[in-house]
Design goal:
Number of helices: 17
Radius of gyration: 20 Å
Helix content: 40-55%
Number of domains: 2
Strand order of the largest sheet: 1-2-4-5-6-7-8-9
Order of helices and strands: EHEEHHEHEHHEHEHHEHEHHHHHHH
Distance between the termini: 44 Å
Number of strands: 9
Structural class: alpha/beta
CATH superfamily of the largest domain: Aldolase class I
Length: about 325
């Protein structure tokens, strides 16, 4: 399978959401979509609890590690550390607009310093055989994306990066919260499609404002190599991820009930290690979105999963409530 094919669909890195339990859950619905970790800073990888930050289940492959940082030597060291975990890709965050990221001089602020990004990725490439990719914005603040984005891509590509995921919005580093930066700056999908036409040798994937598989197919039809979906894949995972493998010509499409049942062994293993049910089921609340009984499913898990001793019986109880709602609807 080529690297380009692997990215026809991916699930965006989302802080506090795309942890290892979320990724195992998403993997029950798609065998092919690329899954991304939450962003981990290079200093955290170097100095922090490595297995907690980097560990993942083999079922998650293909899975990418997203790093945050702006110091080439530090990023190179973080990549060297991460080699032992055998991620399929390592991605540099050049798109996050949060204050915490700006204060560390990385994330979206790096759109202003493409030469520094080139130095960073060159140092990272020197430490691994796995692909180094970049997730960026179309620009920041008062930059003109039509001139800034091509220069950024050209500069970073010269350093050895062949794959970019472009969030098709500007980031405003002052005046907008991270949430507002995901919603207020206007989308420019057309500009990202133009970048693919201008740089046909690059793998160009698009992110931002994409909420359905039909929309993803339309963007792929424009010639883009891949589509990354964020919040929609989290809040309504079944509608986005079940059937996604048809983008690769494969017919893997389990029922949401099968997905829930497939999670039970993972839940049991987590509980046996001293984990809490809520740490997994919080990612599963949207599994039945739009179906009869979805509200009851969410309520039972939300109210009960934090209680001491909560286990897989609560998940089965929530599933039973769905059956009851379906019978009532019929």
């Amino acid at each position: 399978m080529s690297h380009r094919l692997a990215h026809r669909l991916s699930v965006a890195p989302m802080m506090d959401w795309t942890d290892r339990h979320c990724r195992v859950f998403h993997r029950q619905m798609t065998r092919r979509a690329m899954l991304y970790t939450e962003m981990v800073t290079a200093p955290a990888v170097i100095h922090g609890p490595r297995d907690r930050l980097l560990g993942f289940d083999a079922i998650e492959h293909p899975v990418a590690l997203q790093l945050g940082g702006s110091d080439p030597a530090e990023l190179a060291r973080a990549v060297r550390v991460a080699r032992d975990w055998a991620y399929d890709e390592i991605n540099l965050n050049c798109g996050c607009p949060s204050d915490r990221v700006q204060s560390g001089a990385f994330g979206a602020v790096l759109m202003q310093t493409p030469d520094l990004v080139a130095d960073c990725v060159a140092a990272m490439i020197g430490e691994t055989d796995q692909p180094i990719t970049v997730k960026c914005r179309i620009g920041v603040d008062d930059q003109d994306p039509a001139s800034v984005l091509p220069r950024f891509l050209e500069t970073v590509a010269r350093a050895g990066v062949g794959h970019f995921i472009i969030h098709a919005r500007k980031a405003w580093l002052q005046g907008l919260s991270p949430r507002e930066n995901r919603e207020i700056p206007p989308l420019d999908h057309e500009l990202v499609a133009r970048m693919k036409a201008e740089f046909p040798e690059l793998t160009i994937c698009i992110n931002g404002g994409i909420t359905s598989l039909d929309q993803a197919r339309g963007l792929l039809d424009l010639g883009l190599d891949g589509v990354m979906i964020g919040r929609a894949a989290y809040h309504e995972p079944a509608s986005v991820l079940i059937g996604a493998d048809r983008l690769w010509g494969e017919d893997f499409a389990p029922d949401p009930l099968q997905v829930a049942m497939a999670m039970l062994p993972h839940i049991e293993a987590h509980l046996d290690r001293g984990g809490r049910l809520h740490q997994i089921t919080r990612h599963m609340l949207g599994l039945f979105a739009g179906r009869p009984g979805a509200r009851g499913w969410r309520r039972i898990l939300s109210e009960g999963a934090n209680r001491p001793g909560a286990g897989t019986d609560l998940v089965l109880q929530a599933l039973e409530s769905l059956h009851g709602a379906a019978r009532s609807a019929a």
